[in-house]
TrEMBL record:
Keywords noted in UniProt: G-protein coupled receptor, Membrane, Receptor, Sensory transduction, Taste, Transducer, Transmembrane, Transmembrane helix
Family: Belongs to the G-protein coupled receptor T2R family.
Places the protein is found: Membrane
Gene name of the encoded protein: TAS2R9
Protein name per its UniProtKB record: Taste receptor type 2
SUPFAM superfamilies xref list: Family A G protein-coupled receptor-like
GO molecular-function term, one example from the UniProt record: bitter taste receptor activity
UniProt xrefs under InterPro entries: TAS2R
Membrane topology designation: Multi-pass membrane protein
CDD domains named among the record's database cross-references: 7tm_TAS2R
Origin superkingdom: Eukaryota
Length: 264
């Protein structure tokens, strides 16, 4: 609505808009892919369809995680106060950098998603084509290599966004502590303190949810390899709930979004 009325968006709104789009796409695609797997399961035997679904699922998931991490980094750079020249440069240039960061995040998410889908397809094809005892041994070695490569790519994607959230929380906390010490010495309170606290609450909530999300993603890999369906189901429920719960935190921490929600 703001985009339609003003024809322009600030950096925060750009990140929120892309984050909202990626989460809507992620949740809708998850539902559609589940529907296809239950009703039209024969489509999953087609290599092109299977690879396309895996690529899109990974892409929307990485897009959701990385744009969320970009939002945390944006809060940190905008609100935290440090005298470091590089940090000051980032604070001045961050508004121009946001579109390029978002574009880079999407391109990298797409590249990693294609790589993971291709590796997993190679594992399945090598598993199907191995028929004799000798080929089983060779295929097992190849599968281990491909699994390691795909898990490494997936882990890199998750860890990169998780580390950005951790660093944003640490820098904001340190900046808040310094600012609080300065205010106590001068016996004054200002708006910057309130901005610090609001951002800190948002980023800490991000950090808690990201930590649980990161552990669930690791457990998904472990329990998928062990074929434990109950734990995999419980973890999948949380991973599907993560975008919605995190979005509610974003809405209630933003006065404009909260007002829009109350209007609706």
């Amino acid at each position: 609505i703001a985009w339609v009325k003003k024809k322009t968006l600030n950096s925060n709104q750009k990140i929120l808009l892309l984050l909202g789009c990626s989460r809507i796409c992620l949740l809708c695609f998850t539902w559609v892919s589940h529907f296809i797997s239950r009703i039209y399961s024969n489509f999953l035997h087609v290599q092109t369809v299977r690879q396309l679904l895996a690529t899109l699922q990974s892409f929307f998931n990485y897009s959701n995680l990385w744009v969320s991490a970009c939002l945390c980094g944006f809060y940190c750079i905008k609100i935290a106060n440090f005298r470091n020249s590089f940090f000051i440069y980032l604070k001045v240039k961050i508004d121009r950098m946001v579109p390029w960061l978002l574009l880079g995040s999407e391109i990298l998410a797409l590249a990693i998603s294609i790589g993971i889908a291709d590796l997993m397809e190679t594992v399945q094809s090598s598993n199907l084509t191995s028929t004799c005892q000798e080929n089983f041994w060779e295929a097992g070695i190849k599968m281990d290599k491909h699994f390691f490569s795909s898990f490494f790519l997936a882990g890199f994607g998750y860890a990169a966004s998780f580390l950005l959230v951790i660093f944003s929380a640490v820098f904001l906390l340190f900046s808040l502590w310094r600012h609080k010490c300065t205010m106590q010495k001068s016996s004054m309170k200002d708006l910057s303190m309130n901005a610090h606290i609001r951002a800190m609450k948002s980023v800490l909530s991000f950090l808690v949810m990201y930590s649980i999300n990161f552990v669930c993603l690791i457990m998904t890999v472990i329990y998928t390899m062990k074929d434990e369906n109950t734990m995999t189901l419980l973890i999948s429920i949380y991973l599907c709930a993560f975008p919605g719960v995190h979005s509610l935190i974003l809405i209630f921490s933003n006065p404009k979004l909260e007002k829009a929600l109350l209007k609706i």
